[in-house]
Amino acid sequence: MKALDLTPEQQAKIDPILDDMRQQMIALRSAGLPEQERQAKAQRLRDAMRARIREILTPEQQTRYDEFSGGEGGGRGATAGRVWVIGPDGKPKAVAVRLGITDGTSTEVVSGDLHEGQEIIGGALGGGNQPNRPSAPGGGGAPRLRL
Q1: Which residues of 108-144 are buried (b: 16+ CB within 10 A; e: fewer)?
Q2: Rounded to an integer, what distance in angstroms lies between the CA atom of residue 81 and that of residue 71?
Q3: What is the 3-state secondary structure (H, E, C) of the chain?
Q4: What is the spatial distance between Cα 126 and Cα 128, in angstroms, rounded to a whole number?
Q5: Which residues sit opposite 109 in a β-bridge?
Q6: How far apart are CA 59 and CA 65, in angstroms?
Q7: Is 55 exposed, middle or buried (0-12, 13-18, 19+ CB in 10 A)?
Q8: Would you write out the chain's pLDDT as a tens digit for each of its 147 residues?
Q9: Distance of alpha carbon 20 from alpha carbon 24, whole angstroms
């Protein structure tokens, strides 16, 4: 959201959209739907969220948003990222991903070799001489990634 240079008024309108999306995705995960149907519904929810967010943005912000959110720009400008998963040998394995929108707590994964519900390594504890630091101001733990 920082990349869009949102005004406080825009942020105040977008925060409830993101909160609503989180709640809908939680409900969808617990609905007991077949995987393919759940993924299709999740995609429709993401598309609807993106459309609602676009309505709040200026034309310039819409262009930037489309570049990294997978919207009209197809996500070509999405931010490159990396997450870690446990490989078949039991060791961490890096997976390249393209990241979309974030609210500082949850981050959208636009593309990458991950599957919904797959566990990832979102953070690591420091050594004995390093204090455990929260991942975000006011936070207390590893960053969360929702697929």
Answers
A1: bbbebebeeeeebeeeeeeeeeeeeeeeeeeeeeebe
A2: 18
A3: CHHHCCCHHHHHHHHHHHHHHHHHHHHHHCCCCCHHHHHHHHHHHHHHHHHHHHHHCCHHHHHHHHHHHCCCCCCCCCEEEEEEEECCCCCEEEEEEEEEEECCCCEEEEEECCCCCCCCECCCCCCCCCCCCCCCCCCCCCCCCCC
A4: 7
A5: 99
A6: 10
A7: exposed
A8: 677 889 999 999 999 999 999 999 889 888 888 888 888 888 889 889 888 998 999 999 888 887 776 554 444 445 777 788 888 888 888 887 777 777 767 777 777 778 777 888 866 555 444 444 444 444 444 455 555
A9: 6
